[in-house]
Amino acid sequence: MGNNLTEDNCTIDNQGLYTFYSSVMILEFLLALPLNLSVLYIFIFRFKFWKTNTIFLFNLVLADILLLACLPVKVYYYQHGYRCSVNETTCKAMLFMLFLNRGASIAFLTAVSVDRYLNVVHPHKKNYLKLARRKPHISVFIWVSLLPLTIPTMLRTFECCNIIDHGEEHFMDVLREIVFFTQILIPFLVLIFCAVKIIQKLSQRSIGKKVKIRRAVFLVILVVVVFGVCFLPCTTSRLVLLVVRIKNLHYIEKIAAQVNDGITCLSYIDCLLDPIVYCFCSSNFKTVYMSNFCPCLLKKETNTQDTSTRTRFTKTNEHTVAFWVTGK
């Protein structure tokens, strides 16, 4: 790979395009940061997350906040005509943070789906109960295990702080790309498996037990959608950029790099979509969050549910009276 990869040019050719990219990231930052900080506030001060199944969600919002902290730096360099910092140390530190927290977001989204799969498909197995009690340990293990996987980005990186060995193929180039693609593709396959199994379980259950499984189906499908919108496009664009560089197609390399940068900017929208996952994963979280930040909406929802319940009750009574009077 080292023979074909050329060093990125940090200087931006199309400043107007990257100004647009920076505007998108500013909008994502301004919308996602208050939302995720409010979620973090609920988890810490208003929600006993250590007694529920939301430990993975707490780590997910933490990863999202750390990821958002990198966006102002990217915006700064985009608006000053650079794709990344020209300082090698700063550039590698930024890529390390982005890789680490992107990997953590993917890992904890997958963990949420696997946890729901075990809870629905294998609810009575003792192994699941032991696993559920060790969720804090699993969370720590995920963070620790992500650190060595991110080391290749510190040693040799794909961006403009890349160090080329002048014609010598380097093992770290291959390892870095393997880590990048596997940390997205393998969790995506796991999510598809969980979704299929939960849907199969839903079709086998009786009507009275379908509500819980239906929520699990919505949750896993939502996570798959987040992957499909946020992570798979940037994986595809990175693959295209790699192919372009391997084949030494210099005349379209800059275009491929610009497209990859744009899709990567859009991928940060997962910080806005993840709070929807929290609501599907825990109805208690949704209630607590709305009671603290949107009490008016909560009252409207409660009134709507009460009206719907009264309507069903009235219809049931009318049907019962009609049955005793007419026998039909």
Task: Assess the beta-strand content as a share of residues.
Answer: under 5%
Our measurement of the CA-to-CA distance between the termini, rounded to an integer number of angstroms, reads 78 Å
**Structural class, from secondary structure content?**
mainly alpha
Order of helices and strands: HHHHHHHHHHHH
Polypeptide structure, described:
- This protein is mostly helical and 328 residues long.
- The chain is globular and about 60 Å long.
- The longest helix has 37 residues, at 210-246.
- 80% of the residues lie in helices and 0% in strands.
Compact overview of the structure:
With 328 residues, the chain is mainly alpha-helical. Helices cover 80% and strands 0% of the residues.
Can you give keywords for this protein?
328 residues; globular; disordered C terminus
What is the topological layout?
Layout: H1 15-46, H2 55-68, H3 71-79, H4 88-121, H5 126-133, H6 135-155, H7 171-204, H8 210-246, H9 250-267, H10 270-281, H11 283-293, H12 295-326
Helix pairs in contact: 1-2, 1-3, 1-9, 1-11, 2-4, 2-10, 4-6, 4-7, 4-8, 6-7, 7-8, 8-9, 8-10, 10-11, 11-12
